[in-house]
Design a protein that fits this description.
The complex is a heterodimer.
Chain A: H1 2-120, H2 127-158, E1 163-167, H3 168-182, E2 188-192, E3 197-201, H4 202-218, E4 226-234, E5 238-245, H5 277-287, E6 292-296, E7 302-309
Helix pairs in contact in A: 1-2, 2-5, 3-4, 4-5
Chain B: E1 6-10, H1 14-26, E2 32-36, H2 39-46, E3 62-65, H3 74-82, E4 92-96, H4 101-109, E5 114-117, H5 122-139
Parallel strand pairs in B: 1-2, 1-3, 3-4, 4-5
The chains are: A alpha+beta, B alpha/beta.
Chain lengths: ~325, ~150
């Protein structure tokens, strides 16, 4: 009996243990179920997220394709524009050349006949008639100069550039020799910095210096002693050249017109010129990848600046 | 006495012709100047054709050639002259308003003897014509005719 009781008790304990195990198993099971439900839910969410991301990616890819096409189109447009610009430029140059060329013929005729008239019939012409004819001759000569300058302007625009590494000191000296020859009666004090070597076209750069230096000489002609300085600034990516003079200067109000074709700051009776020199300078410097600007005050001298990029291979 | 030699002037502009003749006269270049109005007439003169059918045969001492001309321009005339055995040695001087680089290249490539841009100033024009006339029609030794 005792044994029976014993074994009964044991059984109960075992049963209880089993019950407990079952309970904890059930708990575990429930936990697993909830966990796996959670995981499943998370998976569903993750899946949704992935699908969404994939869709986004596809959308982005599609957008990228469109953007790419747009870029290709824009590039093609740019190339088309550039080609059109080149053609338009060439046409403009050809036009300006042919205009100036065809203008020369009638001018030559006016000159010729006025000359013949004055030469052959001078005796029978009243003084007033001679005066008129001389004015005609004078104006046609002036127009001849304008046309020649226009021709030169058109030529510097289309002339092919032969770039080389050149000593700016030598170019300036060459130009100064000619200028000094023409102005030996003037009192001019030149102050010239040591200049660098620059990657440029020799003939065109000479023209730049010729224009700028003869301008400085011209607009200081009313000064007893002209002082003309040439400086250079060694910047990171470019050289900036400056020409300062103590001449008549100009009103900065009109500075933006300065480098335009046929723009003048002074009446031609006071200072000769056709207003093409600085336009030439501007054009040439632009072709070298540089900039031009000026600073002045009326009656207090002028400073002209141009920059030339340093050769990137240096 | 300087031998009188013919100069063939090909020029379409009446005033340019007149002024050139005036300049020649001013310089006492009493040469016989034949004026033709375009390239076609210039070749007719050389070949004794058309209105020049009855002229005395022989090449001019100089052809003074304008470039811009109607019907046939100066460059075409020069090409014809240089490719014809009977005319290829005739001195040809271009006298034009144009300093166009292409014209310079083309005419020199075709063997032009000189290229002169007509000066706008009449005194300079007279001087230019004088130099051309006295050099090519007087000083210059002509090529022997008919010995190709």
């Amino acid at each position: 009996m005792k044994n029976q009781d014993n074994s009964k008790g044991l059984l109960i304990i075992e049963l209880q243990e089993l019950q407990q195990k079952y309970n904890s198993l059930e708990g575990l099971f429930n936990k697993v179920v909830t966990e796996s439900e959670l995981v499943a839910n998370k998976l569903i969410i993750a899946n949704k997220e992935l699908t969404y991301q994939n869709k986004e990616k596809e959308k982005r890819a599609a957008e990228l394709i469109i953007a790419n096409k747009e870029l290709v189109f824009q590039n093609e447009e740019k190339e088309k524009r550039a080609a059109e610009l080149i053609i338009a430029n060439k046409e403009l140059e050809a036009f300006s050349y042919s205009v100036s060329h065809d203008l020369r013929a009638p001018l030559r005729h006016i000159n010729g006949y006025v000359d013949l008239l004055l030469g052959r019939f001078s005796d029978s012409l009243p003084d007033k008639a001679k005066y008129y004819l001389n004015n005609v001759a004078d104006s046609s000569r002036q127009m001849g100069t304008l046309i020649d300058n226009l021709l030169q302007f058109s030529r510097t625009g289309r002339q092919e550039m032969r770039l080389a590494y050149l000593d700016m000191n030598i170019i300036v000296l060459e130009v100064l020799e000619t200028i000094n020859l023409d102005n030996h009666e003037r009192n001019i004090q030149w102050q010239i910095d040591k200049l660098p070597h620059v990657y440029c076209d020799h003939a065109l750069m000479r023209l730049v210096w010729t224009n700028l230096l003869s301008n400085a000489v011209k607009f200081t002609s009313t000064r007893e002693k002209a002082i003309i300085e040439i400086n250079v600034l060694d910047e990171k990516e470019e050289f900036v050249f400056a020409i300062h003079d103590n001449g008549v200067g100009f009103d900065m109000q009109y500075a933006q017109k300065l480098f335009g074709v046929f723009q003048r700051m002074h009446p031609s009776d006071e200072f000769e010129g056709t207003g093409i020199g600085l336009a030439n300078v501007h054009n040439i410097i632009l072709r070298h990848g540089g900039r031009t600007w000026a600073q002045a005050e009326l009656d207090k001298g002028a400073s002209f600046y141009f920059s030339i990029p340093k050769n990137k291979e240096d | 006495m300087v031998e009188l030699r013919t100069i063939l002037l090909a020029e379409d502009n009446r005033k340019d012709v007149e002024l050139t003749l005036e300049a020649m006269a001013e310089n006492n270049l009493a040469n016989l100047i034949i004026v033709v109005k375009d390239g076609v007439e210039a070749l007719e003169y050389l070949r004794c054709q058309g209105k020049f059918k009855l002229r005395k045969a022989g090449n001019p001492a100089l052809v003074l050639l304008d470039i811009k001309m109607p019907r046939m321009d100066g460059i075409e005339v020069l090409r014809n002259i240089r490719s014809d055995n009977a005319f290829k040695r005739i001195p040809v001087v271009v006298l034009t308003s144009s300093r166009e680089e292409n014209d310079l290249i083309n005419t020199y490539d075709l063997g032009v003897n000189a290229y002169v841009v007509k000066p706008v100033d009449f005194k300079q024009f007279i001087e230019a014509v004088k130099q051309i006339g006295s050099f090519w029609a007087v000083l210059n030794e002509l090529p022997p005719e008919k010995s190709f």
